[in-house]
Amino acid sequence: RYCISTLTSSVSHGKPLSDETDSTGVLRPQWFLEERERNETLLRNQDSEKFNQPKVEHLKEKLEEYMARFAKVRIVRTKKREGLIRTRLLGASMAKGEVLTFLDSHCEVNVNWLPPLLNQIALNQKTIVCPMIDVIDHNHFGYEAQAGDAMRGAFDWEMYYKRIPIPPELQRADPSDPFESPVMAGGLFAVDRKWFWELGGYDPGLEIWGGEQYEISFKVWMCGGGMFDVPCSRVGHIYRKYVPYKVPSGTSLARNLKRVAETWMDEFAEYIYQRRPEYRHLSTGDISAQKELRKHLKCKDFKWFMTAVAWDVPKYYPPVEPPPAAWGEIRNVAANLCVDSKHGATGTELRLDVCVKDGSERTWSHEQLFTFGWREDIRPGEPLHTRKFCFDTISQSSPVILYDCHGMKGNQHWSYRKDKTLFHPVSNGCIDCNPAEKKIFMNRCDPLSETQQWIFEHINMTVLEKFNSKGSS
Ligand SMILES: [Mn+2]
């Protein structure tokens, strides 16, 4: 299945790519490079625990019979389960091509995906290049771009992968030009084979999967190379809801992450341990070979990486959480009742209830502590332990619900004003309530109405004034 519309739209906004597109943005056929021009394909085939189930019969002789017709495909099998990282290393060690391209099995390449990747490597051999990863729906295999399409790869300080907008400084005149990305999303990339091995490949001490995308990303940047996302190269990927295999006990994502942090992140590893204290006592295994490699390649330190490459990441994910503007209970002036989210998840409507401080039945069902934090959103929980749900609403007549925080302001952006209203800039409305029905909803702002006046238990005036002086930004 081809998705020319996605590809052409990425090429056609902005100038056409030299002579590769015509003025309408329609691709000329000579731009296509047939897949068979690839040097070879190595299929890794793991001895996973699912392997002996009837479901995967097709991965045994049937696969060999089928692949016999493709001269350039070789099947490599491991003797025991090695996991993604070591199996990829095995494939890479047997590959003969000049450029290695790693893709997951649940990928489907789009038209002309390869030349834009190879082009970037031809320009600079010490480059890792990633295609744009499009989304293939796991239910119906529909194909579409990710929300926001071209974005930089980033991470928070629990080492969750994040995507952030390309800052103006890094935006190219032609948006189809490759752009720098601090970290890759997963494992879809192309790299010069010699450069990959100069970098030591993946750390073979990493187990099964997890953290390896950070390891290779930090390494390529810190050790004299770079990493680019290539908007003209598009590869569809099925995002699974559930991981269909078990990770053997004794190995864990946490251990991999700590190994990467201890090898590459220097003093910044501390920011992870502050959020994940349980990592402090984990063993990383022997990382002396990794440290030796870092010294041997004369790699720069992580501070350099944060300053020169990932300088925009702390704007979205600061290592040290800035102080909140207000926190604690949120009490309505007219009702003398408190906002209560009942430990709800996404979709939960906020309600009024008797304030816990006023001796409402002390059951665990109440959740009345909130934090109005530096992202100018409101989350359940005390400042250091907020849940990742935010006050969210749509219009001046909508309920106020909890929704997964996106951290991008927008419809989760609130302003706590001097008149005690909780103002929602996007809808130009205020939080109102009906004390009798205990309902909370949006309304047109009326600062004189006491049902729209709310009192936070604690306020940091310095921070709050800073929020409010920024206006409706
Ligand atoms: Mn995948």
From TrEMBL:
It catalyses: L-seryl-[protein] + UDP-N-acetyl-alpha-D-galactosamine = a 3-O-[N-acetyl-alpha-D-galactosaminyl]-L-seryl-[protein] + UDP + H(+); L-threonyl-[protein] + UDP-N-acetyl-alpha-D-galactosamine = a 3-O-[N-acetyl-alpha-D-galactosaminyl]-L-threonyl-[protein] + UDP + H(+). Its main location: Golgi. One of its GO terms (biological process) is protein O-linked glycosylation. Its EC number is 2.4.1.-. It holds the Pfam family Ricin_B_lectin. InterPro entries: GalNAc-T, Glyco_trans_2-like, Nucleotide-diphossugar_trans, Ricin_B-like_lectins, Ricin_B_lectin. GO terms for cellular component: Golgi membrane. PROSITE patterns: RICIN_B_LECTIN. It is a single-pass type II membrane protein. One of its GO terms (molecular function) is carbohydrate binding. Keywords: Disulfide bond, Glycoprotein, Glycosyltransferase, Golgi apparatus, Lectin, Manganese, Membrane, Metal-binding, Signal-anchor, Transferase, Transmembrane, Transmembrane helix. Its cofactor is Mn(2+). Pathway: Protein modification; protein glycosylation. It comes from the Eukaryota. Signal peptide: none annotated. It is found in: Golgi apparatus membrane. Residues 324-457 form the Ricin B lectin domain. Belongs to the glycosyltransferase 2 family. GalNAc-T subfamily. PANTHER family: N-ACETYLGALACTOSAMINYLTRANSFERASE, POLYPEPTIDE N-ACETYLGALACTOSAMINYLTRANSFERASE-LIKE 6. This is Polypeptide N-acetylgalactosaminyltransferase.
